[in-house]
Amino acid sequence: MSRAVSFALAMIATASYAASPNDILQNNTRAVVYLEVNDSSGAFIDSGTGFIVSHDGYVITAAHLKVDPSQKMWAIIGQRDGTRFQMKLREADEKNDVALWQLPQSASCRYAVTISSKPVNVLDRAVVLGFPAQSGLTPALVNIANLQDNNGFYNADGFLQPGYSGGPVFNEDGRIIALVHGGTLGGGNNSLIQSSFMMNLISKWGVKAGIDVSVPFADACYASCRVPAHGVEKWSSEVPWGPVDSGELSGGHTRKGECDKLIAAALAGHPNSQIDLLPGEGIPDSTGMWENAHKDFAGQMHYTYYCKGTLRSGPIFYEKHSSECGLWN
Question: Is the pTM for the entire model greater than 0.90?
Answer without folding.
Answer: no
